[in-house]
Structures are given as C-alpha cells and as structure tokens.
C-alpha cells in the first residue's frame, strides 16, 4: 500500500488492498505457455523448443510476491496488501 500512497497520497486512506494468488502449478503452466508462444518471449531461444520437463529443470518460475510487497530492513519482503487471497478460495 506504501507505493499506492506515494502516488495517490491520503486519497486512499481507509481503503483495503488485496491480491489474488493463483495455484503455483497453474501459474507455471501459464508462464511456460507464454514463454513458448508469445512473440515477445520467442527472442529467448532457450524456451523455443523447451519441453515441460525442461522448463521445470530450468527452474525459472513466476514468483509475484515482489509485485505486491516491499523490502524490509533485513532484506525480506513484507506484503503491501492487507489480504492475500488464495485462488482456490474464490
């Protein structure tokens, strides 16, 4: 919420912020399909012919925590949102 307050100031006072976190395997399947088929990502040749097992072994998985969290003093991440909703709870 800190980054949002930087942009909107006190206009967001009293608002709640949330995000929805998808199932990790579903996110990986989507990411795999994107890097294999998206024109933007086809320039990365290592993905062009990569199988699913190759993708898993490559180990570059989509992790979204940095999109809704800020670093703390110890180098960890602290969520900027009030609630993180698991996709299965919708």
Total tally of structural domains: 1
- What count of helical segments does DSSP give? 4
Using only C-alpha atoms, the radius of gyration works out to 17 Å
Mean pLDDT: 84
Number of DSSP-assigned strands: 4
Tell me, briefly, the overall form.
elongated
Going by helix content, strand content and strand pairing, the class is alpha+beta
Uncertain parts: none
* Main sheet attributes: strand count, strand direction, barrel closure: 2 strands, parallel
N-to-C CA distance: 22 Å
* Share in helix: 25-40%
- Spatial arrangement of strands, main beta sheet: 1-4
Query: Roughly what fraction of the amino acids lie in strands?
Result: 15-25%
The SSE order reads HEHHHEEE
What does this entry show, briefly?
The chain is α+β, with helices and mostly antiparallel strands and 90 residues long. The protein has helices at 2-8, 24-37, 45-48, 52-58; strands at 18-21, 69-71, 77-79, 83-86. The protein has 4 helices and 4 strands.
Topology of this protein?
Layout: H1 2-8, E1 18-21, H2 24-37, H3 45-48, H4 52-58, E2 69-71, E3 77-79, E4 83-86
Parallel strand pairs: 1-4
Antiparallel strand pairs: 2-3
Task: Write a concise keyword list for the protein shown above.
two-stranded antiparallel ribbon; alpha+beta; 90 residues; 4 strands; two-stranded parallel ribbon
What would you say this structure looks like, in words?
- The chain has 90 residues and is of the alpha+beta class.
- The chain contains 4 helices and 4 strands, in the order αβαααβββ.
- A hairpin with a 5-residue loop joins β2 and β3.
- The chain has one domain.
- The strands form 2 sheets. It has a two-stranded parallel ribbon with strand order 1-4. A two-stranded antiparallel sheet has the order 2-3.
- The model has no long low-confidence stretch (mean pLDDT 84).
- The longest helix has 14 residues, at 24-37.
- Helices cover 36% and strands 16% of the residues.
């Amino acid at each position: 919420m800190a980054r949002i307050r930087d942009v909107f100031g006190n206009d967001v006072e009293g608002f709640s912020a949330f995000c929805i976190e998808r199932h990790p395997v579903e996110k990986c399947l989507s990411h795999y399909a994107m890097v294999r088929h998206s024109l933007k990502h086809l320039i990365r040749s290592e993905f062009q012919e990569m199988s699913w097992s190759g993708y898993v072994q490559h180990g570059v998985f989509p992790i979204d925590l940095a999109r809704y969290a800020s670093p703390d003093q110890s180098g960890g991440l602290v969520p900027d949102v009030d609630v993180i909703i698991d996709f299965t709870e919708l």
